[in-house]
Amino acid sequence: MTVIELSFEQAMLVLDKALQKKHLSNIQEMVLRLCWSGYTYAEIAESSGYDDDYIRDVGFRLWQMLSKALGENIAKSNVKTVLRRHYSSLKQVDSQVSTIAAFPTPKIQQQQDWGEAIDVSVFYGRQKEQELLQRWIIDEKCRLLMLLGMGGIGKTALSVKVAEKLQSKFDFVFWRSLRNSPAISDLMRELISFVSQQSAASLPENLDVQISYLMKYLRSRRCLILLDNIESLLQSGETSGHYCTGYEGYGQLLRRIGDEVHQSCLVFTTRETPSGFTAREGDALPVRSLQLTGLSAVESQQILATKGLVDSTDECQQLIQRYAGNPLALKIVATTIQHLFDGNICQFLQQGSVIFGDIWEILEQQFNRLSANEKQVMYSLAVKQDWVSLQHLQQYVIPQISERELLEALFSLQRRSLIEQRSASYTQPTVVMEYVSENLIGKVCCEIPTAENYSLA
């Protein structure tokens, strides 16, 4: 007799039917997934950062829950055998149902709504990132993915490029920009109408019920949803990740899509990590993030060549390094070099300043979102112009803040992609450091009293 090799995704289909309206929590699914892969409780605790006893307790309650749902004793040692047997039974039932056509399923016509998605017919590099995202979405069935990076790094273009490559794998593809901060009710109305093929004539007012309605379609149909610029929904002037008043529903939507079992995927792009995401992501979990950094030297040179810059390799390398391979910044500066310096990179580099125009505006927008503590940390790093240890950094921040506040600020700045970390030391990308330095000089100059500020005695 041939033994069926059951995948974890097939096992989850068995449990989805057995548990009916109930679903495994995020931590329960993680424990089950890793047990399925042969991890011990101690290994699960170590890889996830949880206490060993807590993981064992989660496992104990999980087996109790599954035993009750499936009507027989289930433990870590026999879970594969039991679920394999139930899966075989389901296949037989499904076959019988198909034969008598008791529950005919209407044919789903593949549909796509690209909204305001940009044209990516000209696209530079990111081959490794494309392959990684494709593996996560198709092979590993991830449910929620975040593309994180500073402004201009290429998050939007990558999301569209990957969606174009994978569109044939999905029944529905839905792409939307959140730059203008649409209300969650408006997005849900559009999204549900689309995936239901306009069969949902009216929706309840309650958001939780609306999301449940959407989840039904995400379980029964293969949907790829892409939301661009989620940072537009987040508050400025505070540590990163807090939703603006009235937009907390987006967090509720992301949590449920990440936590509940379904066969679809939501990808979102952002300059900062929304609250609640970090606790859910992990290398062995269906919620993951990809932080984008600058393009490689070869890919960056392609951008410069497209703009007609063909100076020596050394000069091109200097230019690429100063802008950390940021594709948008390279496109902007290449146009400037052509118009103001007759295409001479060397002359541009000699004039000193690399932050101007649209590049300044991009960084200004992101810097203005920072909390007071984050700005102080950024100023301190810019003054040092080098890697700074956590211990030394606390001494440089003026006015001084507590260790807790410093750690919160550093963590928030990492989530905004504005600092780099190596071991326990921190610095800023070159282009960010130059902006912050100029910003600090302007701030100091404004605060220095002049003769006009004084009256003669």
TrEMBL record:
Domain named NB-ARC: residues? 131-230
Xref: InterPro entries: Disease_R_plants, HTH_VMAP-M9, NB-ARC, P-loop_NTPase, RNA_pol_sigma_r3/r4-like
Q: Which domain of life is it from?
A: Bacteria
Pfam families per UniProt? HTH_VMAP-M9, NB-ARC
Could you tell me which residue ranges the vWA-MoxR associated protein N-terminal HTH domain spans? 8-86
What protein name is recorded for this chain? NACHT domain-containing protein
What organism, scientifically named, is this protein from? Calothrix parietina FACHB-288
